[in-house]
Specification:
162 residues, Rossmann fold, 6 helices, 40% helix, single chain, alpha/beta
């Protein structure tokens, strides 16, 4: 039997304990894991348009994820710039990203996420890989990047004050 390969991708906008948990889960279940950060997608550009927090910068996120991945002997990290991979309406084109992912992970046994809604895309893009959903209900780590950004916005605007 060959080496078990896993893939985990995201924007990490920002990175949080749920991402760490997913990377750790993949690293324990696979012989080799490829972690890919996608940059310059439509959601990221919208977030960064109004939020200039250094914690959300590509350089900070890259450094942070590289540090995490370096803790494991079986995890490698890459960045894919999706700036030129847009649909005619300007939204992200995941199907156009697939060949770039495949350049780093030609074959995979597992694709990891915490989002069950990604299943349809993963079945089409990576038909040989089982979709491993890690902590979809955010029970182990009740956090998401969207929640972190919302909390930061509340703090900055003092919207929580009575």
């Amino acid at each position: 039997m060959g080496e078990i390969i896993g893939f985990f991708g995201g924007k990490f906008l920002p990175m949080h304990k749920g991402h760490l948990y997913c990377i750790d889960t993949a690293a324990r279940q696979c012989d080799h894991v490829v972690v890919i950060m996608f940059i310059n997608g439509d959601e990221e550009l919208k977030v960064l348009e109004n939020n200039h927090d250094e914690l959300l910068s590509v350089s900070f996120r890259t450094e942070q994820i590289q540090r995490v991945c370096s803790l494991y002997d079986n995890v490698e990290f890459h960045v894919i710039d999706t700036m030129d991979l847009k649909k005619p309406d300007g939204t992200e084109d995941w199907d156009a990203e697939t060949p770039l992912v495949r350049s780093f992970v030609p074959k995979m046994d597992y694709v990891y996420s915490s989002e069950p809604s990604y299943g349809e895309y993963f079945e089409r893009a990576y038909p040989e890989a089982a979709h491993i959903i890690v902590d979809a209900n955010r029970e182990t780590y009740p956090i998401s990047s969207t929640m972190i950004r919302a909390m930061k916005l509340l703090e900055e605007k003092k919207l929580w004050m009575v």
